[in-house]
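Hi team,

Filling in the usual template for the complex we talked about on Friday. All components are listed, including any nucleic acid strands or ligand strings, so the model treats them as one assembly.

SUBMITTER: L.P.
PURPOSE: interface mapping
COMPONENTS: two
RESIDUES: 229
SEQUENCES:
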Amino acid sequence: DSGVTQTPKHLITATGQRVTLRCSPRSGDLSVYWYQQSLDQGLQFLIQYYNGEERAKGNILERFSAQQFPDLHSELNLSSLELGDSALYFCASSTRQGSNSPLHFGNGTRLTVT
Amino acid sequence: DQQVKQNSPSLSVQEGRISILNCDYTNSMFDYFLWYKKYPAEGPTFLISISSIKDKNEDGRFTVFLNKSAKHLSLHIVPSQPGDSAVYFCAAGEGSRAAGNKLTFGGGTRVLVKP
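RESULT (copied from the run log):
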């Protein structure tokens, strides 16, 4: 158990809809990261937050947004969903930013867009 | 543009033998490297890491080797056990504050250890 909690585990929705994925980091971790894993591909970095502020951005679509709240949990919002957005979405957390601390991953949310 | 590549999508090895997983990178700004292991329906789990100032790091049955001039790293698992059957991801990061702590992942290598 990594200590990172993601909800829901599975999500099935239709094209054009909007969903929110939630992540609670490990206790004491200030950094939260979101990654997307499409079928049989590696993990693609989406965005990082550190203590409530956006810290780094990857190839995140404009239809996607995220935030980190004062209690350090984070939400990833996906809107105007397309079939190609079907993927596993992982959240990870780490203690520090800009350092070599490993990321600890949750078990992911599997999003299916039909 | 894949900055981190794992060219072998799968690997099959006999129990007790050595598993060697390879990873190549192109970004010379990467200065630390990690291996993650992933079982189905679970998130990736950190396995071992290495800083660019080293060329080898060992942790039990797992050893990571780094060849900076070749921009290549490898993970050795000795001896391989059936429980090692999983997908292994190579990841790289820039340890600068500006880069945050994001990691760039390879596509993964599926390892099957046969009893």
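MY TAKE: The radius of gyration of chain B is 14 Å. Chain B has no helices and eleven strands.

Thanks, L.
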